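Suppose a colleague, Dr. K., hands you the sequence of a protein chain of 137 amino acids and asks what its three-dimensional shape might be. Before reaching for any lab equipment, you can write down a predicted structure in token form. Begin with the sequence itself:
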Amino acid sequence: MKNLIKSFTLCIIVCLTIEANGQLPDQYWTDLVTEQPEGYVVDDNGDVHLYSAEALAWLISVTNGLNGQETDDFDDKTIYLEENIDLSAALWIPLAGKNTIIDGFKGCFDGKEHVIDGLTMTNGISNYWAMGLFGKT
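The predicted structure, expressed as tokens, is then:
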């Protein structure tokens, strides 16, 4: 019988910043990254290694079924953050935050003590479950 208790490990530091001049980026990451970038590497186990802001942004499309992708809840898989990431170039949409086909992110996100900086969101994405790096876990 499959163990019904899932564990979730989030080993990252997320730094939320507000621009002093009140200016927000005018695009969402999902508009900037419309296909899998080089920094998004899937290993032989199906685990994902993220090496850039674009790679982390591509994870939005994969978990939410955007940009032509099937939704993936990453059950029994691990996402590894391999570099510090600056997300200030565009607006963030929560991972596993849009599509109700999946019941949240079910994998392990291992930040490997790296920092995600500049995560910026607006309340204009009210059709999402929550505001943060993840919508639902």
